Amino acid sequence: MAAQTSAEVLHTYFPGDLLFSGQGPAWQDLLVEIHVRPDQHEALLIPAVPEPQIVWTLEGQLVVEEREIGGTWLRSEVNAGDMFLTASRTPYEVRWQASGPTLPTVMAVYVGLPLLAEAAADLWGEGAEVPVLREFSAQRDEVLWMLLELLRQELVQREKASVSLVQGVARALAVHLMRAYGEVGRPRNRRLVGLTAFQLAHIDHFLKSRLDRSLHLEDLAREVGLSQFHFARLFKKTTGVTPSRHLTRMRMDRARRLLRKDDHSILEIGLEVGYQSASHFSDVFRKEVGVTPSDYRRNL
Fold first, then answer.
1. How far, in Å, CA of 249 to CA of 18, rounded?
2. Is 274 helix (H, G, I), strand (E, B) or coil?
3. Does residue 149 register a pLDDT over 50?
4. 20 to 30 A Cα–Cα from 251, which one of 41, 112, 217, 282?
5. Going from the N-terminus, what domains does the chain have, and what CATH number goes with each?
């Protein structure tokens, strides 16, 4: 699968309800989604991908804490309009708690590497290295706000996005990131350290649509055109966990949501997330969550 076409399978790593996603030729080299987050989430592992990510809070108030894996939590109080820029080359953890009555609504944007390379060449000449981007948390940027608002309007208000408008804004966005946050003289490492956001988007969608089925490493590797060994190595570098561990976490996350919302039996929920017996499901759930599914539902 070509990297640019995987923008049609929007990255949905953060939990929550997806409201809008950019699909089709207008969104080439750009991953864009708008979704509503749950009011709280504990220690969510965020993968490291080569593309920088911008998260813009559209609605709600919340307290967000971030840390390198095993490090100290860094706290930010976030209001509507605040933004995060992440360009981490290693996985990290994030957790949050809503501090107001409105569930947080966010827009997440991944800027593709071809756009960054084009911007670097435009600013500093052909063959210029793409610099490291300076990260920030819970800040505001009027130019960034203007560009993201244009993308939001095109995503939400137009039945068919304009290729010229979206790609023009995407190029302007890449140039602004280079000018405002690029640390010139500190080029990014050219070597791919893991899967791209586009590849991870496709794998994430593939897994979420098949959580009730038996899945194997060869199925995932085939989806992105890699050998099993190469895929497993790149996946671990990107997410910090093995594919099987990631799949278990996804299954437990869905199971928690089903236990909160549904009155289905424990066996039915276990089957929906890929376990053929209630006892096996309960054992895995207790190991991951700390309590049995029955106790989890009882304590809600």
1. 19
2. coil
3. yes
4. 112
5. 3-187 (2.60.120.810), 210-298 (1.10.10.60)
